[in-house]
DNA sequence: ATAGCTGCTTACTTAAGGGTAAGTACTTGT
DNA sequence: ACAAGTACTTACCCTTAAGTAAGCAGCTAT
């Protein structure tokens, strides 16, 4: 995983923000370019790695696996691997991830509204 | 403002995502490192530039003004300047920004919940 | 007259995130 | 023997976001 300089100003600010602003805290878990897209896909149910890849054609394998791992580390998704060949791995929301669904739906609903009311 | 290469892969993907995923669309408006923090401050009412600066001690003026401008451009905040010396400029939610409040509250609520249930 | 307040702007540097492309392990189908 | 499928991993580079530091305009209080 990308290594991060422990004492960079940026890291310091990030920590501070996460402690001071609950919205920042959440953005750190579900924000960024790819996480919303992955989470959105998982909202319709468990998916295997290759399904996600196909569902999000523009994502690279590196990004997909990197963010899945992060979501796992944050306790939002669960990875289940069946020891068969070829491998069969599924990703799905954990209970904590499930509790995010209403939030994601609220976000998406606002997005749809704005989107239709002013074009892209 | 920062100029952006029109045809970069990243830009292309970003456009695609915003069209395909409503959550991404919203993240592009309110995500990133500083926007959530600024929006959170504005939720408690109109603030002048210097108040925001003091309320968010670790933000640089460059970041503050840059994101305020972006939020303005996205129609989420309104800037009002009184032509006095020293200048007096206030920033507040537009009606569209107001409509975001429930969403931000939902996000914050989830954040608080998670935060208390597993430490930072 | 000089420092201070306010709300910015600019030029430059660094750090983080993302993209490209290749490789790995292990088995089934041909 | 070799291609194909699955789920990754790795090394390297480029783009974008953020940080640093300085300056400006215009008035006011010392």
From TrEMBL, chains A, B:
Ranges that cross the membrane: none
Output the InterPro entries linked to this UniProt entry: ArsR-like_HTH, HTH_HxlR, WH-like_DNA-bd_sf, WH_DNA-bd_sf
Q: What are the residue boundaries of the HTH hxlR-type domain, all occurrences included?
A: 21-119
**Any one of the GO BP annotations:** regulation of DNA-templated transcription
Mind telling me which SUPFAM superfamilies this protein's record contains?
A: Winged helix' DNA-binding domain
Q: Does the keyword Ligase apply?
A: no
User: Which keywords fit this entry according to its UniProt record?
Assistant: DNA-binding, Transcription, Transcription regulation
Q: Which Pfam families match?
A: HxlR
What's a Gene Ontology MF term here? DNA binding
Q: Which CDD domains match?
A: HTH_ARSR (cd00090)
Q: Transcription as a keyword?
A: yes
Task: Spell out the PROSITE patterns in the cross-references.
Answer: HTH_HXLR
Q: What is the recorded name of this protein? A: Transcriptional regulator
**From what organism does this protein derive?**
Mucilaginibacter gilvus
């Amino acid at each position: 995983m990308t290594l991060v300089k422990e004492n960079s100003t940026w890291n310091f600010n990030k920590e501070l923000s996460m402690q001071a602003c609950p919205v920042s805290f959440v953005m750190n878990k579900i924000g960024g370019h790819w996480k919303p897209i992955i989470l959105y896909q998982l909202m319709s149910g468990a998916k295997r790695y290759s399904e996600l890849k196909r569902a999000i054609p523009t994502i690279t394998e590196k990004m997909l696996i990197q963010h899945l791992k992060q979501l796992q580390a944050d306790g939002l998704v669960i990875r289940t691997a069946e020891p068969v060949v070829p491998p069969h791995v599924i990703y799905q929301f954990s209970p904590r991830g499930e509790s995010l669904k209403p939030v994601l739906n609220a976000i998406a609903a606002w997005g749809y509204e704005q989107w239709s009311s002013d074009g892209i």
